[in-house]
Amino acid sequence: MLWIDWIAIISAVLLIVAVLLQSSEDNIQDAFSGEKSELFKNKKIRGMELFLTRASIVLSIIMIVSVVLSNNIR
């Protein structure tokens, strides 16, 4: 196993944790009924939610790049 494989595995695990820690304010029932849809409402995210959003973006980019590099090296 190469070091790039370890980076891909660690970033994937951290990405899963970051996504699971994010809170969801949407109700699944509203998604199917169409009631009270706040999907397109502009809400400013702050604090820990902003950090988790940015962390998930960075971790996903790191994971994608490391997987592509890992496949091209072999």
From TrEMBL:
Localization annotation: Cell membrane; Membrane
Membrane topology: Multi-pass membrane protein
One family name in Pfam for this protein: SecG
One cellular-component annotation, GO: plasma membrane
An annotated GO BP: protein secretion
Keywords noted in UniProt: Cell membrane, Membrane, Protein transport, Translocation, Transmembrane, Transmembrane helix, Transport
Chief site of localization: membrane
One MF term in the entry's GO annotations: protein-transporting ATPase activity
Annotated TM spans: 6-23, 51-69
InterPro entries (UniProt xref): SecG (IPR004692)
Protein function: Involved in protein export. Participates in an early event of protein translocation.
Protein family (similarity comment): Belongs to the SecG family.
Listed name of the protein: Protein-export membrane protein SecG
Organism of this sequence: Mariniplasma anaerobium
Lineage per the UniProt record: Bacteria, Bacillati, Mycoplasmatota, Mollicutes, Acholeplasmatales
